[in-house]
Amino acid sequence: MGNRTELLAPAGTIDCFYAAMSAGADAVYAGGTRFGARAYAGNFSDEELIRAIDYAHLFGKKFYLTLNTLTKESEMKDLPGFLAPLYEAGLDGVIVQDLGIFRHLKEHFPYLPLHASTQMALTGVYGAELLKSMGAVRIVPARELSVGEIREIHEKTGLEIECFIHGAMCYCYSGMCLMSSMLGGRSGNRGRCAGPCRQPYGGKGSDEYILSMKDLSSIEQLPDMIEAGVDSMKIEGRMKTPQYVAGVTSIYRKYLDLYYEKGREGFKVKKADRDELLGLYSRSGLNPGYFDRHNGKEMITMGRGSYSRSLPDDFELKIMQLPVKGKAVVRVGEPLSLRLQTVSYHGDGSSDEVTVEFSGAVVECAKNRPMEEKQIRKQLQKTGGSVFCFESLDIEIEGNVFVPVSALNELRRGAFEKLSEELLREFRRSL
User: Across-strand partners of 343?
Assistant: First the structure.
């Protein structure tokens, strides 16, 4: 993890993933079509999961998969086939609730980091130590813990700690609530919570929402949490839109950076940013959760719940591109050549430069008018829709050259495929 706390953003869809990356997330957590605790999120197809893992690694980010539901014995047979290609692609970790899945992963995917989900309701050192003995490298403790309790777990276990800092709150300990299952047959531990705690209780005609929690926002507590040893700050919201994900992520990115730049003394949250968080989405206002209090009536919506939501109309989804320096050599009688250079990010957080070279078809001598540099440049720079873009491109031409457009396209595609393979090679695993 290094010395800086990770900012971990949610993604219910691939567009939310790109929004989180562009907004400054260090890592993203998401679910596939199975085994995740948000059955009604868009979720990722198997192909999208591979694409997201590779994309994150190209930019020095991480991707975690949610396997955070209780699983039936009959479903376990599907797990190896679902997870194997993600493991081989370099998946950075899985967030797990079910101890059966936990043991299976430890045995069959030995190099896959295991994170104990908040659905395990870990509330102290003893539970954390048990999970550590089973192979967990990170825990997501219950959201009801104070900063002091979180610090104690960190200091006594040495485990990585991941804490929710923003988003929806549950009335019950996560993983312990059976209300939705008992009342409607939709289990929260199977990713299908119907949210009965959001309904009024207290008798016929009651308008008291005594189980409905206000949403969490702990941006003011970031210095306390960092200094308590929290390794990853987690935003809740896999059911939310790309606009929400981008907006919340960008604000928390701003204040994490502010802390590391100016320390506690220079850390001050502007009212405009608090208001923006409130406007993006909240249930009757935001509250700082349990980090510095045990409980309180002010944490409950009590009334029907007025939803604040003011997503920007001018939101534009941005997909980052990795800048590349290139040099093409086009000489009559010799194969086309394209050299590419860019930054290579490593799993340990370091980076360096990587260079690849790719050769194409032999350059012909023009029978009539030779090809001009601008024609060659136009074809080679067609990287739109790709994860790469040219920062600079030098083109060296010798002789009256002619190159078919198809040969230039093949040169570009081949060079960038080779570059991508080189950048991702260290993340690949074998079963």
Answer: 353
Structure tokens at 422: 């080189």
> At a CB cut-off of 8 Å and minimum separation 6, what does 125 contact?
152, 153, 156, 157
Please give the sequence-ordered ranges of beta strands (E in DSSP) within 184-306, or none if there are none. Answer: 209-213, 215-217, 232-235, 282-283, 286-287, 300-302
| DSSP class per residue in 38-81 | -TTS----HHHHHHHHHHHHHTT-EEEEEE-S---GGGGGGHHH
CA distances from 326 to 250, 352, 354, 389, 400 (A): 32, 17, 12, 10, 22
Instruction: Show the low-confidence residues of the chain (pLDDT under 70).
Output: 1-2, 34-42, 203, 205-206, 304-308
Amino acid at the residue 322 = L
| Contact between 159 and 230 (Cβ < 8 Å) | no
Two structure tokens written together for 50: 């591979």
Distance CA 25, CA 250 (A): 8
Task: Indicate if the alpha-carbon torsion angle 129, 131, 136, 138 is positive or negative.
Answer: negative
Give me the residues paired with residue 19 across strands: none
Compute the distance between CA of residue 312 and CA of residue 318 in angstroms, rounded to an integer.
14
Q: Please state whether the predicted TM-score (pTM) of the whole model is above 0.85.
A: yes
72-48-426 Cα angle (round to 5)? 100
pLDDT at 249: 97
Nearest to 395 by CA among 329, 334, 333: 329
Phi, psi (deg, nearest 5) at residue 381: -90, 5
* Residue reference for tokens 């230039």: 408
Alpha helices of 65-116 — where are they, by DSSP H? 79-89, 99-108
Residue 35: the pLDDT is 64
How many other C-beta atoms lie within 10 A of the C-beta of residue 330?
Answer: 25
CB atoms within 10 A of CB 405: 12
Sign of the Cα pseudo-torsion (367, 368, 372, 375, in order): negative
Q: Rounded distance, CA 406 to CA 308, Å?
A: 53
Residues in the chain: 431
Which token pair is 83? 């997870």
- Domains recognised in the chain with CATH numbers: 6-308 (3.20.20.70), 322-427 (no CATH)
Displacement of CA 138 from its chain's centroid (Å): 16
* Residue corresponding to tokens 């800086």: 4
Distance CA 394, CA 396 (A): 7
